[in-house]
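Q: Could you fold this chain for me?
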Amino acid sequence: MAASANRAAVNGAAGSGEPEASRDHVIIFPFMAKGHTLPLLHFAAALSVHHKSLRVTLVTTPANLAFARRRLPGSVHLVVLPFPSLQPPLLPAGVESTDALPSMSLYPAFLRATALLREPFAEFMASLSSSPPLVVVSDFFLGHH
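A: Sure. Below is the predicted structure, expressed as C-alpha cells.
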C-alpha cells in the first residue's frame, strides 16, 4: 500500500482567517527523540501563536501523535506518516522514538527505519505542489544518509 494512502492530516485549524492555500506554510519534521522533538514543538507553537499569518504543520508518526498533540496549540496542523517496519522485524511494535527503545543496541535499526520515512515524507511534500511550503525545518534524518 502506498504510504500516502496511510498519511492522515489530524487537524487543520486556521488561525488568521486567511484561506489556507494563501498563507505561507512552514513544515516542521523533528527526529523522533525527545531532545530533538521538544525544541521543535516549542518552535512550532511559538510560530503559530506569534505569527498568525503562517500555517504551521508538524509531521509525526502514530506513536508520537499524542505527545505532540498535548504540547501544541490547535492552530498547528498535525500530519501523521506511518512509521516504517523493517524486514525482518528488528524493532518492537510501537517503538517510534528513541525513548521507547528497549535497548540502545536497537538504535542502528531505529535509524534505518527513520531513513525509510524519506519516501512518505517526499510524497507528502509532493501533495503540496500547488502550494509549496515557505520553509521545511527538520533535523538529522532528512540529511542523514
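A (continued): The mean pLDDT is 86.
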